[in-house]
Each structure stands twice: as C-alpha cells, then as structure tokens.
Amino acid sequence: MKKVKPWKILESKYLLKSKWVNFRADTCETDSGGIIEDFYISEYRDFVHVIPITEDKKILLNKQYRHGRELIGYELPGGQVEEEEKDPLEAAQRELLEETGYASNNFYHLVTYPVDPASRNNLIHFYIAENVFFKQDAVIMDNEVIEPYLFGIDEIIDLLDQGEINQSTHIGGILMAFKKLGWFKMDL
C-alpha cells in the first residue's frame, strides 16, 4: 500500500490579492505523477472564535447575516487575527469585546484546527471565555449588523437541531466546548 505524500507545487499564480483574502491557482504534481492544473486556494488570515459563558452558564451568541449563503443565523463571536496581533488570544479578547461588549478575565485555548484544508490555508483557534460580563457598548464595524443573545445549554442544543447555528466550524467548536466542560449529552 502506498503512503500518502504531499503534492509538489510546480507553479503558483495569484488571481486576486486583497486586504481580506488572496486567491491563487496552483499547478501540482501528485505522488503518482498526475498533473493538476488550476487547483484554487483561498488564503485568509487565521480566525478566532470564542465560546463566551456567563457565571450562570448562559452562552453568548451573535445573530448575523452571511451573504455567501444569504442566510441569517447564530454564531460565535470572532473574526480574523489582525497582522499586529502576536497571539490569537489577543484577537479572541478583542473580537468578543468589539462584537458584544462583553469581556472575561478567564480565557483559555480550546482547540485549533484547519478551516478547510482542501482549499484554504488558514487555521481557526477556539477559546472558552468563562464568567463573561458586560463591559461596554459593542463597537460594530460599518459593514456588520450583530445582535448578541444569551442562551441556556438546552437552548443551544435546540438551535443546533433546528439548523439555526449554521456554520460547521462553529458547530464543531461548540461541541468541543460542551465536551470539555462536561455538558455533552448524547442519547444513543
């Protein structure tokens, strides 16, 4: 049985470079000698997402519109790690405060994994923020409309069941947090 090996990049060309995303097309050679032309890669900065939990075990989610699928759903506070941020934790703390007005003195790293290793180059870093508290009004960018809501654990499960939390990475982060916190309930 052959072992899986990385492809060899023969050529790489940028189709678009912007402040949000770069798109490139690679020509690659597989280990078996096959040539793949125009394999498209999206280059993004790393993302952070926060699972914010209040002292009384409520989870803070944002209701937000996402134009790619033209849908509204609930999601975790988060965003891109800015170039000047040395550590994704800085971005997690900033994003939570900017998007919700909430803060925490108890952040810890949950998990990091690739967003979509088939076609994207970035990672997503999840943090749990415990005992979040309201600190200030949110500072929302002009291109965002965000409504923060607090939900109990069972309400989060209902939102997952109903497809109201509709980003797969957020679903994975929430389930990982529930497992870590001992909140994962599964009927088999």
Structure overview:
By secondary structure, the protein is α+β, with helices and mostly antiparallel strands. The chain has 2 domains: 8-43, no CATH class; 47-181, Alpha-Beta Complex (Nucleoside Triphosphate Pyrophosphohydrolase), CATH 3.90.79. 19% of the residues lie in helices and 43% in strands. The chain has 3 helices and 11 strands. It has helices at 88-100, 153-161, 168-181; strands at 8-17, 22-29, 35-43, 47-54, 59-66, 71-75, 78-80, 102-103, 106-114, 123-134, 146-151. Strands 4, 7, 8, 9 and 10 form a 5-stranded mixed beta sheet that branches. Strands 1-2-3 form a 3-stranded antiparallel beta sheet, with no helix packed on it. Strand 1 and strand 2 form a beta hairpin. The longest helix has 14 residues, at 168-181. The mean pLDDT is 93.
Q: State the helicity in percent bands.
A: 10-25%
**Secondary structural class:** alpha+beta
Q: Name the CATH superfamily classification of the largest domain.
A: Nucleoside Triphosphate Pyrophosphohydrolase
CATH topology of the largest domain: Nucleoside Triphosphate Pyrophosphohydrolase
Distance between the termini: 36 Å
Q: What is the molecular shape? A: globular
Beta content comes to 35-45%
Low-pLDDT sequence parts: none
Main sheet record: 5 strands, mixed
